[in-house]
Structures are given as C-alpha cells and as structure tokens.
Amino acid sequence: MYVRHAGVHMLALALALALAAPAARWMAETRRALRLFAAIAVAAALSYSIDLGLLERFVVDHLKPGYVDAESLSGPSAWPPPRPAPSTGRVLFKWTAGDSYIRDVVVPDYDWYLLTLAFQSFFLSDRSAVLFHRISDAGWVPFECASVRRALAPARDQPDATFLRFVLDTGYCVP
Predict the structure, then answer these.
(1) Rounded distance between C-alpha atoms, residue 108 and residue 83, angstroms
(2) CA–CA separation, 42 vs 149, rounded Å?
(3) Is residue 77 helix, strand or coil?
(4) What are the structural domain ranges in the chain?
(5) What's the pLDDT tens digit per position in 7-50?
(6) What is the DSSP letter of 129?
C-alpha cells in the first residue's frame, strides 16, 4: 500500500542519478532494481484493489436503510475499532496480523478516512442508506453548512435531499 506513495520519489531519484551517469552503464546497473520496483508496484496495486473490493463487500453487508452510526452496531455486525498502533508484523505481513483479515486489517486500514464511509455507503446503497462515523471536534470537515443549505433547496430528488440533511444533522459541515 505504501509503495505507491514512495514510488514517485524513488523514480525521481533514479532519474537524477541517471542524468549523472552514462546511459549504457546506468541501464545495465539498474535493470534488476527497476524490474524489482515494477514487480513491487504491481503487487501493491493488486493488493490495494483486492482490499478495496473486500472493504466494499464489508460495507454493503452492514447497510441498513436510513442513517446508521457505525459505532452503534453491535453483535456479529459490530464495526471494528479504529486502527490499532502499527506493529512490525502487521506492517510487513498484513494478511497474518489478525483473526479476520477483513475485520482486523482491511477495515481499520481503509476506514480511517471518516467522511469516506458516509459517501461510499450512500452510493453503494443506491442512495438509500448512510453508514457513518461521528465527526469529533478535532476532525476535518470539508463542507460549509451555508453551502449545504443552499444545495438542499433545489435538491434533484428525495435521496439527495436526505443526504444533504444528513450532512447538516450530523455535523459533517462547519457553521
């Protein structure tokens, strides 16, 4: 997952080194390293895509009509807690770091963007449900309430109006 962020920096460094060395020599010495980087990037992209598919399936399994606070779910459908502190084993071998890979690894890794769950669940449910996390005072809120109120008046249809009311009712906007 993290290689996609660092990859650009590694390629920029490789390009800077390439400019300082003769082309034939640089290509001969770096061919193996560039192939390894490409293999890691492909594996990371594949892993990331699979994880996002698993997260989507987990969210769909927890959808209920209306607004549902993810932390209020209990029993077998309880929402996993926030991401625990990283451990070496969990970072290097994420698929071995929990009893349930989806519950213990995927959801805590990808659900830390609090606003994403509300939007993802709204669109996955065909605009009939919102599964969300409460936003704390320290959380980042991207909407201005006045703008949301202005958008509410000419809302395209009832599901869109319901989502805009959700944004206003749950503090997903700043006054």
Answers:
(1) 4
(2) 44
(3) helix
(4) 3-134
(5) 667 777 777 777 777 777 777 777 777 787 788 778 888 888 89
(6) E
